[in-house]
Amino acid sequence: MTEHSTQDWRIRNAIAGVAVSSLLAASFIPSAAAAAPTAPAQLASGASTSSPAATVEEVGIELPEGLQSAHDSVFWADNEACASFSFASIDGPYTNSSSPVLGCVDGYVAFLNKSEEYYVQLSEDEIDGDYTRVMFAYHDGDAWTLHGDFAYVWPYPFLRTLTNATGPALEQEMEDQLLNAGIWVPNMNQLVGPNTAMWTSNEPADSWSRQDLPGQPGVSAEIRDDWTIYRNLWSEGTPDMIMDRFGNYHLSVFHTDSSVETPSECNGPIGDYRIVKSAELGLTSNGEKVKVALVSITEEGIVSHRVVLLPGSATKSGELCVLNGWLNIDGHGSMDPTIMSGVRFDSKKELNSFTKSVAWQDIVRFAGSLQFS
User: Fold this and answer.
1) d(Cα 190, Cα 110) in Å, to the nearest integer?
2) One domain for residues 241 and 366
3) What keywords were assigned to this record (predicted)?
């Protein structure tokens, strides 16, 4: 274990590994995309064809029985095709009844091919599909069929972390992804979900309970009743992953029994952080109270956000490498200070709204409940 091993490094490498395996799989599996319905003539030209801001008079219904939503506001059109959708009806690989759906409209269903089995397959190195991007099915008038094997469309929360685009420019990037996948709908956000930083639930939990983190011996925390903890068995020394009720990768904890010396000088990466919101916890590090903080990160020109644990004396802003060391927990080894990453709020209003939300309160409660023995 090195001083600068970080959760973000593992996530980036995991995503890269999944993408490579997806490309390999795609080269051996015939694509159904050629048989999919085509959009208007603008699709071939690359011209803008949909208007996210336009009002489309569609009526939504509740999800058909057995389907799980990917976020709080899944749109499901009130028509025979959408009402008939089920994963069992799709003739193709990489589908699972527990894969969360993003929306159904105009003959398309969007879904995330990550299921309860995903993390088991991850640990056993059996992944041969793309579990990080959006997949699609289309209705040909008689039945549902998988629209290709790999559409390579990022959902909004992840797309935001790859660009500084906001507003109409970000909507255009989503539209370009769909056009490249051969998909056109009048209102794309009804299909692929809302343009927001996070899709986690903002509803209060019915209850909380203390649970041990299976991959972090001696560590426990209070968990919402609709969260699920997965031990990542992919390799030794990896964080436990806490998923929200939609199956979104929400929080993580990575702990080691040994104390790790924090370097006195930064050696990289180049970038800066700024604390947006923080709350003091009962934990101590080197005799100081620890705080949980939402921080804004600027790295190589890209702005993103993380939730980290910091010593109480941490400055309001500073060099990014400060966040990428290890946080000593007095008497109980060290932990990766990052407990949530891969998020970007694209306006001050959106950022302020999050700091007042149930989701932020849940994170503070979770961090404050961490216990080490």
Assistant:
1) 10
2) yes
3) Signal
